Each structure stands twice: as C-alpha cells, then as structure tokens.
Amino acid sequence: MDKEKIKEKKITFQAPRGMHDILPADEPYWERIENAAKQLARTYGFGRIETPILEFADLYKKTAGEESDVVEKEMYVLKTKGGDVLALRPEYTAGVSRAYLEHAMSRMGQPQRLSYFGPLFRHERPQLGRYREFTQLGFEVLGGVNDAIYDAEVITIAWDLLSELKIKNPLIKINSIGCRVCRPIYKKQLQNYYRNHERELCEDCGRRLKNNPLKLFDCKNAQCQPFKEKAPNFLDKLCSMCTTHFKEVLEYLEEVGIPYEVDHRLVRGLDYYNRTVFEMFADGKEEELGALPAGGRYDYLMEMIGGHLTPAVGFAAGVERLIMVMKAKEIVPNGNRLQKRVFLTHAGDTAKKKAFLLLRDLRKAGIAVSEALAKESLNAQLRAADKEGIGLALILGQKEIYEKSVIIRDLKTGLQESVLLDKIVEEIKKRLK
Ligand code: HAM
Fold this sequence. Notes:
The chain has helices at 3-9, 27-44, 57-63, 69-72, 93-102, 148-164, 183-195, 203-211, 225-229, 240-255, 286-289, 301-304, 319-328, 349-364, 378-388, 398-403, 424-432, and strands at residues 47-48, 54-56, 77-79, 85-88, 112-121, 133-142, 171-176, 261-262, 274-281, 293-297, 312-318, 341-346, 368-371, 392-396, 405-410, 416-420. It is α+β, with helices and mostly antiparallel strands. The protein folds into two domains: 24-182 and 238-328, BirA Bifunctional Protein, domain 2 (2-Layer Sandwich); 341-432, Anticodon-binding domain (Rossmann fold). A hairpin with a 5-residue loop joins strand 3 (77-79) and strand 4 (85-88). Helix 6 runs parallel beside helix 10. The radius of gyration is 28 Å and the shape is elongated. 36% of the residues are buried. Histidyl-adenosine monophosphate is lined by residues 91-93, 122, 124, 129-131, 134, 136, 138, 140, 269, 291-292, 294-296, 298, 314-318, 320-321.
C-alpha cells in the first residue's frame, strides 16, 4: 500500500504478533548475557558458529520429526522464486550438524565444540516466555567418542551460565530416553499400558499413542495427566549400555556438586534425542515460564541427514526468558553504561566548534560521550545530561578555549575543577574507573 493510502486510512503498524523490538533500556541485559556466553565459550574452548537463518525445510522434517510441534505446527516455510522450500530456522542443532557434515569437521580435532547466539522463529501461540521470534544461545559438542563426560560438560556449562547471571538455585530435571536397542521395547510397553486408557485420552494423545508414544508424557491436557503417574518407568527398561551411560552422567554431576532431579517422564519435544535429556528451570518458575537451558544427546541426528553415526550433545537457552528471570529476581546487569559516560557541553559559538573537535578526540580515545551541542543554553544542555542520568559533565566556554582547558563538573555534588586539555583524557579515564 502506498504512503498516501496509508495516510488516508490512518493505518498504524505494530511489530508482528509474538515478535518484539529490543530497546536500549534492555541493552545491559543482552550485553551481560552475550558476554557471559562468550566468556564460557572461551574458557571451555568452544568456537563460534553461525548458520543461515534460512535452511531447507526438509532438514528440520528429517531431524526434529514430521510430527514434532516445531515442524508440524510452528515452522515458517516459504518457497523461493527458484522453487526451493526453505524454513526460517526454528532451532539451531540441525543447522549446526548440517554445517559439521558440509565442512567435513569430522576430519578436524574431535570433538568439535561449537557455540552460537542468534534469532529463531516458531509460529507458536504467544504467551509468557513464548515468542514467535526469540533468541537462543547454545553450546554443542559434536564428534569423537560417546562419553558421558561430554553430557556432564554441557550441563555444567548451562549451570555456570545461570550462576554467572546470578540466577540462583536452578532446578535441573534429567532423564535418559535410551537408544535404538532399548527404546522400541519400552515404546511397546508404553503403548500396551496406554491402550487400556485410549478412550480417555485427548485427541492429540490418541495420535501420539500410535505414532510416537513417548510424546504422551509431553501432553499438558488435564484429562491425560492421571495416566502418567502409573506409566512404566523407562529408567527400569534401559539397556545395560544406556544405564551405565546415565549413571556416569549423574556421577560426574555429583563430582562437581551440581544438584539434579531425575524425572523419568522428561522426553523433550524434538525427535532427534537419545539417552540424556535435561531441562533447567528458574527457582519456582517451572510452570510459569518453561525451561531456560534445555538439551540432550543426539547421536543419530547426523545419520538422519546423510552422515555417519556421530556422537553429539548440547543445549540451548532462550535469551528473552533469561532476561525475564533476571528482571523478576531484580538482578541488575552490572556495567551500567551511564556510569561510564561523560556529557560534553559548550557555552558560546566558538566553544561549540571547539567542542565538536574535542568530542571527536575523546571518542577516538575510547571515551563514551553524550552531548546536546545543538542546544545553545548551557542550562538546557545540563538538563539533557540529567535526563540521560549521566553524572559527569565537561564544560567548554570562551575562557577555557583561551586557557586550553575544560571544566569537569560532578553533576551530583556540583563540585567542579578546571583541567588542561592535554590532561583531560587521562583525568576522565581516572574518574570513570
Ligand atoms: P528447545 O527446548 O526447543 O530445544 O529450546 C531451547 C530453549 O529455547 C528453551 O528451553 C527456551 O529457553 C527457549 N525457547 C524455546 N522456544 C521458545 C519460544 N517460543 N520463545 C522463547 N524462548 C523459547 C532446542 O531448541 C534444542 N535445539 C536444544 C538443543 C541444543 N539440544 C541439543 N542441543
């Protein structure tokens, strides 16, 4: 629609449902979380990977599963002019695995440790902590041998991330969903158990019972809850290899003092998992907000997309949810950018030109400076500094130009002193420390 028509009809635009603007007020949270993730990636030896936002839709159908909510209900799919069917990525793990195969990373040092941070899209029903565009940070360990120590490593990173963000006492739910050997046997038992209750289940669960009985545990419908209680426990049916693997994961966690709660009904929504699955929740926010970091092992995923069996394990956390928890718990991200800024003011026309030059010199020296040089009155400029919440002002007037100096004023105490221009960078850095 052209501009005139928009004007006529007074159409106002809003961000699409479930999608958000990120405004400067939230910047300290984003910065804090991204820095924490970067720092963990550095100390644990993870390299950054970014994959395209669009991938072939089939990549997700083959990995997350045709019947997973993500693929069946939530994918944004588009057909290109060339006829390709692409999807806005609903998750990272499949794309990262595709990149591992495409770049023959199995020939590089094993395992490959890769981390990411970026936007995802799922056409979900928007609700608290659930958006249509959201951001994940994640860590994946791909290749090498299938050792429980890697499962414990990624859970430790997720734990460290929450500690680093001061999200205390998170709850870790963990389970094992077995392998190709033990899972089919368990699925049969589960189907036999649920068959007796088939008529009492919701419509979705009726379908799940036939095609993907493990998903019965995922249902939130009230009518299906009572049957979960008495359902057979997968952990009793794991094969000996899976039992040993799970036991080892738990032992490693105990070794480093990370508490967990085994939940034999935890199954996760994506089909590619085997053995370890886990979800972490903020203290008391389990039902309300859903999982923060969540993930697990996915040894069969590479096979699903044409590669060899490749051990892999990882997790991802929703950044918006982390921010919601930080705000709810009144965790203030440190490094308040306003405390690290100065405000440059001028008094008079000649001073305005010199202030423009000084502004450039200060910024070149790495100092963050705000200004309202377009305002002529000094008071108006100081009011602008106050509005921004900046505590330190520099004042450049005729006298200062003549003396090659500048006034530094502490806007809270009103105390001020004159400093020579060639000492100003040093002095500001000292005061902002
Ligand atoms: P997921 O459970 O689908 O797993 O998502 C992981 C996390 O992303 C969730 O625990 C939550 O914090 C956040 N999240 C998911 N959906 C939304 C949404 N609609 N709005 C806001 N936040 C959301 C995966 O995506 C797997 N790829 C994780 C993984 C990595 N497994 C192995 N490696």
